[in-house]
TrEMBL record:
It comes from Flavobacterium pygoscelis. InterPro entries: Glycosyl_transferase_4 (IPR000715). Keywords: Cell membrane, Magnesium, Membrane, Metal-binding, Transferase, Transmembrane, Transmembrane helix. GO terms for molecular function: metal ion binding; phosphotransferase activity, for other substituted phosphate groups. PANTHER family: PHOSPHO-N-ACETYLMURAMOYL-PENTAPEPTIDE-TRANSFERASE, UNDECAPRENYL-PHOSPHATE ALPHA-N-ACETYLGLUCOSAMINYL 1-PHOSPHATE TRANSFERASE. Its cofactor is Mg(2+). GO terms for biological process: cell wall macromolecule biosynthetic process; cell wall organization; lipopolysaccharide biosynthetic process. This is UDP-GlcNAc--UDP-phosphate GlcNAc-1-phosphate transferase. GO terms for cellular component: plasma membrane. Mg(2+) binds at residues 129, 187. It is found in: Cell membrane. The chain crosses the membrane at residues 45-75, 110-127, 134-153, 159-177, 184-206, 212-233, 259-279, 285-304. It is a multi-pass membrane protein.
Length: 315
């Protein structure tokens, strides 16, 4: 009954936000780099930080994580309305990651480890944001990640939190996983969800001592990293909006339906996650195997990317 109430509450919050966004013209107008062609309400992903705040009041998550997600959510929402310089955004990310470190007691770990985790978290948040480019991809990928974390025995104590966030994702998906989306997540949605998922990843790895769960983010990670490397080789500004991710080529140049591409990314990641969970269960998910899998996934991605680019005649 509690989760039904939450689901209804999230729908009400989204509908209220739509009224506000429409009144104050918080919209996403298509441009040359967009994958959409119609004016769409921006910032529907505000439901994600709202869900974390509600989860905090219900005792499902600590105040540190709630403050961290809320902070990046607020700054990102302001950036959605009126673009900010990089410094306020970066500062909010640094503070938020620091709160995650504090919550997970990471400051007691080896000092050399902290910069590595910090860089990975900042990189993950920005990569996740860059990947938010077509209808459904962010929310479907997030739901797969939340489901995967929920399956793990170590996270059973956090099921109320995971269900709450999953419900917020389902509600957002109702308005986003469409041929013509009612709303986009915006930076407020993608950045706050990225921070939340990054928190779950670090927590899970610490509690299981299994680095292999990093593969839960492999599809997004490989696409983002290889795309960045490709853009750097072309001397492009990697902080500017673009349409050079593989999923964008598939949706824009190849003409596959955006929702189909988003579902494909989610299902591929789900298959990987189920395989990772099984390998961990039977005790064969060693560091060597994880490295081999990552290299294999990257090679497969590169081959597919090259084939697609050759078909659409892009160098």
């Amino acid at each position: 009954m509690e989760y039904i109430v939450l689901f209804i509450l999230f729908i009400a919050i989204e509908l209220i936000y739509f009224k506000i966004a429409d009144k104050f013209d918080i919209i996403d107008k298509p441009n040359a780099r967009s994958s959409h062609t119609a004016v769409t309400l921006r910032g529907g992903g505000i439901i994600f930080p709202v869900a974390v705040i509600i989860a905090c009041f219900l005792g499902y998550v600590s105040w540190e994580i709630a403050v961290a997600v809320t902070l990046v959510g607020i700054i990102s929402f302001i950036d959605d309305i009126k673009p900010l310089s990089q410094w306020p955004r970066f500062a909010s990310h640094v503070i938020a990651v620091g709160l995650v470190f504090y919550d997970l007691n990471l400051f007691s770990e080896a000092i050399w480890l902290l910069p590595i985790i910090f860089i990975l978290m900042i990189g993950w948040m920005n990569a996740f944001n860059f990947m938010d480019g077509i209808n459904g991809i962010t929310v479907l990928y997030s739901l797969i990640a939340i489901l995967s974390f929920a399956i793990l025995p170590v996270n059973q104590v956090d099921l109320p939190l995971l269900i709450t966030m999953g419900l917020s994702g389902l509600v957002f998906g109702i308005f986003n996983v469409r041929k013509k989306a009612k709303t986009f997540a915006g930076d407020v949605g993608s950045i706050s969800m990225a921070l939340f998922l990054g928190f779950l990843m670090i927590k899970t790895i610490i509690e299981t001592q299994q680095l292999g769960f990093i593969l839960f983010f492999s599809v997004y990670g490989i696409d983002a990293v290889i795309t960045i490397i490709n853009r750097l080789t072309k001397r492009e500004n990697i902080f500017q909006a673009h349409r050079s991710h593989l999923y964008q080529y598939l949706a824009n140049e190849k003409g596959f339906p955006q929702v189909l591409v988003a579902i494909s990314y989610a299902l591929i990641q789900l298959f990987i996650n189920v395989s990772v969970i099984y390998m961990d269960k039977i005790g064969c998910l060693s560091t060597y195997v994880v490295g081999l899998l990552l290299a294999s996934f990257a090679l497969i991605y590169i081959v597919i990317r090259k084939l697609v680019l050759r078909q659409i005649d892009i160098k």
